Structures are given as structure tokens and as C-alpha cells.
């Protein structure tokens, strides 16, 4: 087999693994076993709840409340209502929706599924039943409410359980979390809660991710890692770390700030449905309903039967592997991973030293090649992103913001293609180009981002770095290029381990996998010319790059609208895994890079036509 085939083969396998990890499970029908979660059974409630928009104060809101009280009574929950007041912020939002807030308040729906040990702390299942004014809210949060009810039904079918299950269907989440604030601010049942499961959505599909826990989450994560729901789980400590830094919150924010443990689940695919008229039962991804509901049921089943509920302690580091299982470690274990990667790299240097060694200057050039890729990847991603519309911070009104959300699939594809184009240059295309032409291209790519975002210091810094490094020759040889990238990613992992140890796994785990592949290849194929070495690198690289690419989709949906350059960071990790399979110089890669970059720009521009801002303003908040 010719050597050049290994790079595209490994790349396609990596992409296939990433796609596999992004699939939702098949929804179960109404004939599913009584003890299992059924998306179709849950959809019966979704269809009633999401018939029309039902914001606080509307007739539809009262209709939904009556339906849910009837459903809770039928499930034996003996529901009651908890009354509360609307905050000034909630009143202002209602006024923007042209809803008269006079005399309005919060009405939570509360029920209890009794256990055999009412003296034990209870498990709380929580979701909200109000919607924004302009959306039926099939996903946000009719799905969450329906999944809670279906979970209660399945728990009953599984037989007696030790702990009580408190069902809290909150009101006014869309206004200012007022329902959750009211319950945890004064309801007598709040002091019985020992753990919380909250369900949310920002979109209409995709895999449901466990993206938030209580603080000091080691015991909570260990329990969650034991569940085996339909489709597996998608979760990692990077998401929890980033979400806590963001200004927005959900109902889970309230119990989290009170020190309670628990998990927050949501799906964020099909973003064009978020808070829009498109969020209907017909448009909802049934697989997403199955995924979030199955995780809720299995987590609740473990909690209600646990001898002791998770307590706050130390934080864990965790990540799923292709959605099939979760690896859980401690922050301190990151140092062991870094040390192991360094030892493997030292072994490689010793093994290569017996055959003439690798010049340190060339390894340094390999590291600079990685810095060039990272900086130019940021510039290219921002350039293509700017062609798809303004950043969220520059959106002048809600209409523009929701149009941008609807364009996210096009923006993701465009930015991803832009980063791929830069990767093709780093893999060999740049070596076939004139350095001045490369620097000029980077400068040209800076213009759309500057026009669209203004004087963004990250973008400008990346542009200056990319232009300067364009005049530095790349490394000569596969080993220097690979070892330079390993050194760069290892350094980034070290910085992350010091600054944010719960997020350092993103760099540390791929660099350990690449270092292990390098050690094996140095033993089997020191020249990196034979099939044995190529197979080792291709297999390891495909798995490592696939794992990184699987994370790229939820990462972009979460923060990519304003930070498209995050794809360059993930691209660097994939590049490190696959770099030794690349040719030393290739005009074919340079030409292919140009075609891919133009395709990315075209996709981003096409998104503005496929999802234009509507002429009429939407009633969303």
C-alpha cells in the first residue's frame, strides 16, 4: 500500500468515529418495556404541552398547568402548587413580550413519589413548564417535563425504592429562574432534597450532554459514570468548567449555589429551533428525547437506591470516550499523565539517538509550525465566521441573534473547513509555497474578522504571530515535525494543568496517546518509512483525532458563535496525532487547501441566505 494513502485513510476513520459518537439513540416506541424509558410515551405529553406558546400569564400557560396537575395526580404524586412572586427582571421581560404582569405570580407544581424510607434525603427531578412568548417550546422545556413524568412512571414500574422522589415542575424559568428561586427560597420540601436532576434544552436535537454538576463533584461523577442508558453518555469536565464561567444559568444554578449535588442535562443541536416558532413536536428529534430521558431514568434509579447520596468534596476530571463509557480521574492524575508522556518522548529521543538523533533546532521548528497552525487557524476560522454575520456581541436585536443561532450549522461547517485548509498547509502544503505569499494570505484572511469584529485582541495577536511565523521555514523530516508538535501540546497541557486542572485532560490525554504511538513507532520503524510504523500511527492517530473531533461539535455549538477559533485548538490536537503520516512537501495539498478554504467561505455565506434574519421581529427574550 503506498504511504500517501495512510493520511486520508486515518482521517476518514477519525471522522467516522466522531460521527458515530454524535448520533442519538433510536427512540423507543410505546410498546417498550414498562421499566424502560420510551420517547414515544413521553411525546404524548410533549404534543399537549407544546401545542402553542405558553408564557407566564397566558391562557395556554394555565391550560398546560391543568394538564400537568392531572398527569401528576394520575401518577400518584398528590401534587400541590407552590406560589411565589415575579422578580422585577421577570416583569420587565413580560412587558417586552407585551404581557400585562399585573397580578401575575409564580406557580410551581410539586409532587412526591413516596419511597420506603421517607427519613432519607430525597431525589429531586426538575424541569420547567413555561415557554417564551414566541415559541411552543417543544424542546425547551416540554421535553424535560415529559421526560420527568415518564421517568416517574418507569421508576414505579421497577418496584419500591428507598428514597422519596420529589417532582418539581417549575414556573418562570424563562423569566429569571423565579420558580426555582421560590422553591429553594422557602418551600418546606427544599430541606429534604439531597440530590437534583435538572433537564433543559437549547435547540431541538442532538445528543443530551451532562454538562454541569454541583461543586465538589467527585462522588456525583463517579455515580453518573456507572449508568448505561440508551446511546451511552456525552459528558466531560471541560464543559462543566466552561459553563460555570459563562454568565447564563438554568434552574440548576439555584440548588448548585446552595451546595447541593446533582446533574444538569441538556441537548443543544438543531439550534435554529431555540426560542423560535420552529420548536414544535413535529420538528423535535425523538432520539434526543430518548437520550435525555434514558439518562434521567438511569441516574434517578441509582440515586433513589443509593445507601448514601453523593456529597460535596473534591472535583473530578472526566470525559466520555465516543459516548460509550466515561473515564474518571482526579486533578492530580494529570501530573502522572504528563510525566508518562514526557518519559515516552525521552524514550523516543534515546531510540532515535542511536540512529543519528534529531536536531533540537528542527524540533523547535516543528513546535513553531504548530504555533503557526494555531494562530493562522484562529485567523481563518474568524474570517469565515465573519462572512456568516456579526458576532453575538454585535447583534443589534433578538432577531439577529436568533438568526445567527439558526446559522450555526453553516458557521460550524465553514469554520471547520477553514481550519482544515490551514491543516493541509501545515501537513505539507506550506512547504511548497513562497513564504511571502503565505504571509500575504494570512494578512488577507485577517481583514474579514477585523471588519466583522473590530479590534479583537485575540484575532490581531494571532494574525501578527501567523504573519511573522510564515517567514520561518518548517521542520525538515517527519520526526522533528512530530516531536515539535508533541512538545507544544505537552506545554499547553502543562499550562492547563496549573491553571485549570479539570480541563487539562483535553491536551494531556491526546499527547499521551501520541507519545505512546511515537515510542512504538521509534521501536518498529525508526525511519517512519515502513508499513508497520504507518499502521501504528494511523490506528492511534485515527482514534485520538476521532475523539478530539467528537468534542468539536458540542464545543462549537456552545461557544463557537463568538469563539470560532476554538476549532483551531482542537485541530492542533488532531494534527499532532496524524502529523507523521504527512508528506514533506506537496503542491497538491496547497491546491487542495485553497479549494477547501473557498468551500468554507461559500458555506458560511450560503448560511446567510438559508437562514436570513426575518423582517418581522420575533417575540423572544
Summarize the entry for a quick read.
With 621 residues, the chain is an alpha/beta fold. The chain has helices spanning 6-21, 39-49, 59-74, 88-96, 138-157, 173-176, 178-186, 218-224, 237-245, 253-257, 286-305, 333-353, 360-387, 398-406, 408-429, 435-453, 457-469, 478-499, 505-524, 531-559, 566-578, 587-610; strands at 80-84, 106-113, 122-128, 165-170, 193-201, 205-213, 234-235, 261-269, 317-321, 325-329. The strands form two sheets. Strands 1-2-4-3-5-8-6-7 form an eight-stranded mixed β-sheet, with helices on both faces. Strands 9-10 form a two-stranded antiparallel sheet.
3D architecture notes:
The protein has 621 residues and is an alpha/beta fold. It has helices spanning 6-21, 39-49, 59-74, 88-96, 138-157, 173-176, 178-186, 218-224, 237-245, 253-257, 286-305, 333-353, 360-387, 398-406, 408-429, 435-453, 457-469, 478-499, 505-524, 531-559, 566-578, 587-610; strands at 80-84, 106-113, 122-128, 165-170, 193-201, 205-213, 234-235, 261-269, 317-321, 325-329. Strands 1-2-4-3-5-8-6-7 form an 8-stranded mixed β-sheet, sandwiched between helices. A two-stranded antiparallel sheet has the order 9-10. It has 2 domains: 20-329, Aminopeptidase, CATH 3.40.630.10; 331-610, no CATH class. It has 22 helices and 10 strands. Mean pLDDT is 93; it is low at 615-621. Helices cover 56% and strands 10% of the residues. The protein is globular. Helix 1 packs parallel to helix 20.
